[in-house]
Amino acid sequence: MREDAWNIEAKAGAIRYASSGVAGFNHFGGELFNNLAGVQMTHVPYKGGRPSMTDVMGGQVEVGFGTLTQVLPLSSSPSTSSIPPAIWETG
Q1: The pLDDT value given to residue 74
Q2: pLDDT of residue 8
Q3: For the chain, which domains are there?
């Protein structure tokens, strides 16, 4: 994770992350990542989880924060080699 955060930090503001909308769990997850990793990604809100994950998979947005039910169906898609689950521990 540290290497990814350093890559994001080097591109401050140029990396965009998708979420299912403003002020939802996915949006807060992205902002929490920004805060904990000390990076600044730009939030791109979508009208729902499916459109946000579609654009992440299509390369229109670099990073996506989604729920398990939004991401899991994509992991079996032929266009993805793998989507690693992320579990964050704090404290």
Answers
A1: 72
A2: 66
A3: 2-73 (3.40.190.10)
